[in-house]
Specification:
single chain, mainly alpha, 8 helices, transmembrane
Length: 222
């Protein structure tokens, strides 16, 4: 059953995923060109000084990419389901609502995580061309909250798409935006490191909360 759901979601997501993959690679190329240019123009010692001691976030163009990925994936995945009421048919498959909903959301999550892996792998390669591994670790800790924000946007978006009550949709949207916006208050290096476990737990709550909206949708609750 999961393979059938995966294939159904793959058909919807494959084109968008390819476009997002190309965009992600272009972002990495832009970071590489920026780092290469600064290294040549300013010299290695000066550029190292700016990156290590002045906290020059040469990779900050990646900060909003996870939000783009999350928004595109959830829109492509759930707009057809809700506009044609296909989700109601899917929920009548010979499996529990919980299994179907979590399987559907897991497919989108897998696609997003694959794109995240490509982004982080590309960033790792660029950083290791010019800097020690410690700079990548610092960059990873700095970017992780943004990656979780993208996942939270996807999970919250799925919950909002499925929710049948417009008042609750608005409340869920406001709550989701407050949480996501909080992860962008500070773009300083490693600003959210101590809060990462809590951010991760809160993000997971959005992934599980989709079950509540899904069960209400299944019953036709308003």
């Amino acid at each position: 059953m999961y393979l059938a759901i995966f294939y159904k979601e793959w058909i919807k997501l494959r084109s968008a995923s390819l476009v997002l993959l190309i965009i992600s690679v272009l972002f990495i190329v832009q970071i590489w060109l920026t780092a290469s240019y600064n290294m040549r123009i300013n010299g290695g010692e000066i550029y190292w000084y700016y990156v290590i001691y002045r906290n020059d976030l040469f990779y900050n163009s990646l900060f909003f990419l996870p939000l783009i990925i999350g928004a595109v994936v959830v829109t492509v995945q759930f707009t057809p389901e809700m506009s044609a009421d296909r989700l109601k048919l899917t929920l009548h498959l010979p499996a529990s609502d919980t299994f179907i909903l979590l399987s559907t959301v897991s497919v989108g999550t897998i696609f997003i995580c694959i794109l995240y892996f490509v982004i982080l792998a590309g960033l790792f390669l660029v950083i290791m061309m010019y800097f020690p591994i410690q700079i990548f670790i610092s960059a990873l800790l700095t970017i992780l909250p943004k990656l979780l924000a993208g996942l939270a946007l996807y999970w919250a978006g799925a919950m909002i798409f499925i929710e049948s009550n417009w008042v609750k949709r608005i409340l869920l949207t406001v709550a989701s935006l407050i949480f996501i916006q909080a992860l962008y208050i500070s773009n300083f290096i490693e600003a959210y490191t101590r809060m990462l476990p809590g951010i991760f737990v809160i993000s997971l709550v959005f992934s599980i909360s989709v079950l509540i909206s899904g069960h209400r949708y299944r019953r036709g609750a308003r």
